[in-house]
Specification:
The chain has 752 residues and is mostly helical. The protein is 64% helix and 2% strand.
């Protein structure tokens, strides 16, 4: 090949290496396509794992008119073919051999075989397993499925009635049955709807003790009871019903003998997968499938506005922490001050979740880590890539859920983790390259010579990478980071580094723009800063104009002019000791805060057409105002002490000053915090609103910038500290993922 006029010989070894790399890349691409196809298939039609417990109950249903024969012999055959070597029946994908779920399933399968007098050796091995592990039943530290104390003990009574004998101490069996009696007496006192639905849900554990006419009141349109094959099968055993029979016929036709623990469950499984893909940062690869799912689902939260409603539901009565957590997270997306429904849900669900984390609570829920994280960090309080990293590192590959028994709502969790790990690792390489380019750009433009200014290249790259994370959106990140550097230097010039003449000179240069050569540079540092602004904005304008197919350069220049003029106004206020009104301060300060030159250019590079009419629309301006007001007020809260020592005014000190002494600093801080919450709600409302002139990906950038400010200023002035945010920098850009998973090979493959 020829390089710069010279002939360069390529050795056969190099060609061989290149060929091998090409083959590896081709194989990896094929493997990735197969993985993505599996995830898409699972999204469209979730594959539910077989439930030995429910299969056993379906196997117990007698043939109509022939009570000595099973209605579903294929389920009996499944039990005979799927016993584990240790004598148990369970979900093979899960290591739950010593769990209450496995004991429950094993006992149900033993009873089913005994009912039809088949598999005596299977029965013996199953009983031996139960007897060996019977102590688990009494261990309250081991998580139990819903209704275990009723279903398991009910089947013990049923087994004893069949003549089955449990190896082990009779006193243990008697103790379990005694606990059942105590629990049933406790339920007899409660007459709530939640109690009635709970008892009906675990009806197979009560059998003839129930009035099945009352139980059948919970029958659904598809003929099932709670979409539960085991409960529905019990109904057919104790109370024949044509619709229940049709439901089980459909179930066995669809799944064969591999009956799941709940059906239909498509909506829950699909939403669970969407949530999983979102939380680990790979949902963009399946956007069309996800939109199709979400279009079919409507949110119904109004009936859950009061805690009593949740307690009175099946989920509340059975202490379903997962449902409670999802309800709490949904309630945090409040978009109006008057949304009392969401506020009520947030209040009572947050309190209930907090109770579950108390040290004196014996039953620490398995997902307490996620509960703790949700309580500490609402969705607006962290940057996306940090959220993704945490979720990837704590990803549960099995991801099993628990109702009356364990089940897998998703069979491709390993594919989720592999794709997320690969995506995050690849992105980190891109982010690091961009940071190195940013450092070179700073030196090329001599910005590192401006000693009065903070050097925030790392933070600029962090905020860009954590907010605009897809690796393909490199231009949006690069220009975000560059403008972040330029705005910070400009802010430092106006705040501490520049003379009155220098500030006026910089503003005049930006106002004249292409005619700036008609003016003199007052100082070398003004020249360095202006030339960097001029060259960068022109480059962005040229590239964005091509992408948007219209001239956008003037709009970008106008943002710089407007921002620097407002900075100049603040400098004049300080110099002349002018005290603005609070409204006057906010009207100027939300612009001088300097987010427009950072966010607006990046809007052109997120893959959306942004029309000129949208830029002139009230929605566009309101998104900017709300985002910038939040940022300025967050900054004011953390910068109050510093600015007071410098004799500067901000929103808090102005509130105190204009109150005439009637308002304390703490009261002023509270008012500012309320203003932030109000602006945040309105910002979220605008971002979530459909059918608006500003494209959604563009609107989301305004929210991402809010999240950046919330994180940087939640506890201190993280932006001004050279070390405060280093952990976040390392997490997003430098440090490899540390997976807490049983499948470490996933990380190795990704790194390779």
């Amino acid at each position: 090949m020829v390089v710069a006029g010279e002939l360069v010989l390529v050795s056969p070894i190099v060609e061989l290496v290149d060929a091998e790399r090409s083959l590896v890349a081709e194989y990896a691409g094929l493997r990735n396509k197969e993985r993505d196809a599996r995830i898409k298939r699972e999204l469209e039609e979730p594959r539910l794992s077989p439930s030995p417990y429910d299969i056993a109950w379906v196997a117990m249903v007698p043939l109509r008119g022939f009570p000595q024969a099973p209605c579903f012999p294929q389920c009996v055959e499944w039990i005979l073919q799927n016993q584990e070597d240790n004598g148990s029946w369970g979900i093979r994908e899960l290591d739950l051999s010593t769990s209450k779920c496995t004991l429950l399933s094993t006992l149900a399968c033993v009873i089913a075989l005994k009912k039809w007098n088949v598999g005596p050796q299977h029965i013996a091995r199953g009983l031996h397993f139960i007897g060996t592990n019977f102590s688990i039943v009494m261990d309250e530290q081991i998580t139990a499925p819903i209704g275990f104390n009723i279903t398991f003990t009910g089947m013990i009574s049923l087994a004893i009635g069949m003549g089955l004998e449990f190896p082990g101490r009779q006193t243990d069996v008697d103790a379990v049955l005694h606990n059942r009696e105590l629990e049933l007496k406790r339920y007899d006192v409660d007459k709530s709807y939640g109690r009635e639905s709970y008892i009906a849900y675990v009806a197979e554990g009560l059998g003839n003790l129930l009035d099945w006419n009352e139980v059948m009141k919970f029958q659904q349109k598809n003929g099932s009871l709670f979409n539960s094959p085991s409960t529905t099968a019990a109904a057919l055993i104790y109370y024949y019903d044509d619709k229940a029979q049709q439901y089980l016929n459909l179930l066995v036709t669809k799944f064969g003998s591999a009956v799941p623990t709940v059906f239909p469950l498509n909506i829950y499984c699909q939403l669970s997968m969407v949530d999983s893909l979102e939380k680990i940062g790979i949902s963009r690869h399946f956007s069309s499938e996800i939109m199709s799912i979400l279009d079919r689902i409507l949110d119904e939260l109004s009936h859950m506005s009061e805690a009593s409603t949740f307690h009175n539901s099946l989920q509340g009565y059975s202490d379903d922490t997962g449902s409670l957590l999802e309800l709490y997270k949904a309630s945090r997306v409040s978009v109006s001050k008057d949304e009392t429904i969401l506020e009520n849900i947030e209040d009572w669900s947050g309190n209930l979740l907090a109770e579950k984390l108390c040290p004196d609570v014996v039953h620490r829920v398995p997902i307490f880590g996620e509960v703790d994280y949700a309580l500490q960090f609402p969705f607006y309080a962290t940057m996306e890539r940090l959220h993704h990293r945490r979720n990837i590192e704590h990803f549960d590959v099995t991801g099993y859920q628990m109702l009356k028994t364990s089940y897998l709502p998703c069979s491709v969790k390993k594919d989720h983790l592999a794709l997320a790990t690969e995506d995050f690792t690849f992105s980190q390489g891109v982010y690091l390259d961009e940071l190195l380019d940013l450092e070179s750009w700073v030196k090329e433009n001599r910005l590192d010579q401006l000693k009065f200014a903070r050097q925030i290249q790392t933070y600029g790259s962090l905020t860009a990478s954590a907010s605009i994370f897809p690796p393909e959106l490199s231009d949006a990140r690069i220009f975000w980071a560059k403008n972040c550097v330029l705005l910070t230097i400009s802010d430092d010039l106006f705040d501490v580094g520049g003379s009155k003449e220098e500030l006026e000179n910089l503003v005049a240069l930006v106002e004249t723009w292409d005619e700036h050569h008609e003016l003199q540079f007052y100082s070398e540092r003004v020249k360095i800063l202006f030339c960097a602004i001029y060259a960068t904005v022109n480059q962005i304008g040229e590239m964005a104009s091509i992408v948007q197919n219209r001239d956008v350069r003037e709009h970008l220049i106008e943002q710089w002019i407007r921002t620097l003029r407002c900075m100049m106004t603040e400098a004049e206020w300080g110099r002349t000791k002018y005290v603005p009104t609070t409204d006057e301060y906010i009207g100027n300060a939300h612009v001088s805060y300097g987010l427009a030159p950072i966010v607006f250019p990046s809007l052109y590079f997120v893959g959306q057409e942004l029309l000129e009419s949208a830029e002139k629309d009230q929605e566009y301006n309101e998104l900017f105002r709300l985002m910038s007001t939040c940022g300025r007020l967050l900054n004011d809260l953390q910068g109050l002490e510093r600015e007071n020592s410098q004799g500067k005014l901000n929103s808090i000190s102005l509130l105190v000053l204009h109150s005439g002494g009637s308002m304390s600093v703490e009261a002023a801080k509270k008012e500012v915090e309320d203003s932030i919450a109000s602006c945040r709600r309105e910002l979220i409302r605008l971002v979530l609103r459909e059918g608006t002139v500003v494209p959604k990906p563009c609107k989301e950038l305004f929210l991402r910038m809010y999240q950046v400010n919330h994180l940087f200023y939640s506890n201190t002035d993280g932006f001004s500290s050279p070390t405060e945010m280093l952990r976040e920098v390392n997490a997003v850009i430098y440090e490899p993922l540390k997976l807490q998973t049983k499948y470490p090979s996933i990380a190795v493959k990704s790194a390779q």
